[in-house]
Structure formats: C-alpha cells, structure tokens
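Posting this for the archive.
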Amino acid sequence: MKIAVVYDRSNLERSREVMVFSVYEALSKKYDVELLAFEDRFFERINRFDFVFNLSTASRQLHVPAVLELLKIPYTGSDPLAHAICIDKVKTKIILSQCGVPTAPFVAIEPNELVPQIDFYPAIVKPSREGSAKGLSKDSVVNDYDSLRKKVQEIHQQFRETALVERFIDGREFSVGILENEVLPILEIDFSSLPPELEKFYSHRVKHEYGEQTRYICPAQIDRDLEKQIKDYALKTFKILGLRDYARIDLRVKDDQIYFLEVNSLPMLTPNYSDIIKMAQAAGYSYEELIYKILDSAKKRVS
C-alpha cells in the first residue's frame, strides 16, 4: 500500500515539521510512504496513492478530507463534517450542551453585534475558530463590562470572526485523548510552576514560550469517581461529534464540577511535545505503536 503523509507547507513551524517527519519515518518501516504538501497540483499527485495519513492544519484539516472524499481515497482521522463542527468552538459547545455534556455558560458575539451584558464574571474571551491558543492572552480574562467590550472588539478586529465569551473556570485543567474507542490516561496540565506574573491558563505565550516550565501529570492524580465521569463524558463527546480514529478533548474541573472547553479533532502528533503523545506513553504505547493504531483504525473502514 502506497501512503501519502499530507501536510500544510504554509504552517510548518518547528514542532509541526518534527511531527511530519516522525510520522513519515514510523510508517516507512512497513509501507511505501511519501510526503505530500497540500498545495498546487495536489489533485494531480494524490491519485498515485492508496491511502492518506492526514496531518493538515487549521481549516485545511477540513479541506483535505473533503478532497479525499471526492476522490474516494481513504484517510486517517475524522470526516469533513466532524472537523467543521470542532473547528467552531461555539457550535461544539451548543451541540455538547444540548446532549448533556457539561460546559461553562457562554455567549457568542458576531462582528458588528452589540456586546451584551453577561452575568458570569470572570469571563474569558476567545476567537471561535482559531487553534494553538491564538488570540488568548492575559487580558482575555475579564471582570467587568468595559473590559469585556474592549476584548470582544479586539477579537473581531484581529480575526474577523465570532467572539466566544464563556465563564472562566479557575480550576484544574485536564486533557483527554481518545484512540479509536479507547480513552487514554487523563493528563493534567499544571500551571503552578510558572512565574507568578503569568496567567494560569493556555494563553498563546504560555503554550508556546513556557511549555518546558509547565508541569504535565499523566495519569492525573484524581479520584476514581471523577476519573470515570471525565472518561465517560469524553467518550460520549467523541461519539456525539462523529469523531474517528483519534482526538483530544480539553476541560477544567472546579469543586468536582466538570466543564468541557473544546475539542481538537486533529491533534498534533509531535514526539515529546504533543499532549496526546504523553497520554499514549502513559498507556504503554510507543510512538510507532500509536501511529500504527491510528492507521489501523482508519484501515478498518475500508477493509
């Protein structure tokens, strides 16, 4: 079987470059594999392959499977509809809340729409369709209407998209990885070791500049009842949204109350960096084993 590892050349910073080559090296031990950028001549070149390992990014994680569906070429990861839902944090929260998965109170504010009064301070303001903590900074957490209005306007001006305003949960942060239908050990992201002046959540600078000072605890040290609740809700979320093969789901817990935040339908797979890699290692999977489990899960759909 000839496999294309498809990636986005326009968004290939160091961690993504390491991911692309690591997946390529892992698959090359058993298959005929080539790297293929999602760019000009993609339609012409992709027809030479039997299967795609999809490593595209941002909105292109939706575009690549849409093209492959049209060409009837099987691929890893979720289908275009699931990606489209998960890219939009507002739509994700609406669906989850309607299906009984706990999320924080929220409002969605469109560009040029009057910023409403809210009754759930402190609140956090974020762009609705960005990943990698884009648009999140220390002043994203607001405590009054003037700060809320200012931050919403900044999001509208910078990203030209809906601003998501939700209650800021000042609690413990967790991430849950799902591999096929297996819930991996829960990861806690502990910000307590960061410098005191820094925000204690995944802002853009915390995520990209202070990753080495952030503590990652896996398996998370939580009681069995809370662990079971989190895993049950995570698996329910995976199924509700129609996700496939693998995904990562982020949440916070305060006073034993769970609040699901967002879903990453195509999490990064960078060795010694990505959260889902840490979870897979805690479950006893090597990096290569994880990559092959993702591929095998996708292959079952066409076998």
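The first strand starts at residue 2 and ends at 7. The chain has a mean pLDDT of 94.
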